[in-house]
Design a protein that fits this description.
Helix content is 51%, strand content 0%. It is built from 2 helices and no strands. The protein has helices at residues 4-22, 51-67. By secondary structure, it is mainly alpha-helical.
Amino acid sequence: MCDIADEAFEREEWERELALKNRKLPDPPSPVCRNGDCGEKSQPGTSYCSPECREDAERLARAERQRRVA
């Protein structure tokens, strides 16, 4: 017979699996810099041509998220 601790454990496992299935996966690396109109070839293993382009893109993404009205 199941007790309340077993039921809580099963519920926690189910919620963890659900959260892992629904998480947003990162975008794969892009061969072209993703910073707006840059268009330069990105560095191997990244999606940007330089750290400055990555910082600019992240800054713009943060500003866009803050601008949205729910």
